[in-house]
Design goal:
YjbJ_sf; about 70 residues; mainly alpha
Length: about 70
């Protein structure tokens, strides 16, 4: 289990940033419910053909500055 938490109010912005960065991700790929961070990380890692550490790093980086338009 990975110690990573996404706040529900932050998810819509983070989801939009991920869709812009990885336009091949579908709404189904980005389905998220509170407490299901591990499942989301594994799903994204598989879909992006990366490891979970890469996905975790990417999400953490994007969450650091949600107000930024930077990808």
């Amino acid at each position: 289990m990975i110690n990573f938490k996404i706040q529900a109010q932050d998810w819509p912005i983070l989801k939009l940033k991920l869709q812009r960065k990885y336009n091949r991700l579908t709404d189904e790929d980005l389905t998220f419910q509170d407490g299901q961070e591990d499942e989301l990380l594994r799903r994204l890692a598989k879909r992006l053909h990366r490891n979970v550490d890469y996905v975790l790093f990417t999400l953490s980086k994007e969450m650091f500055d949600l107000e930024s338009n930077r990808l």
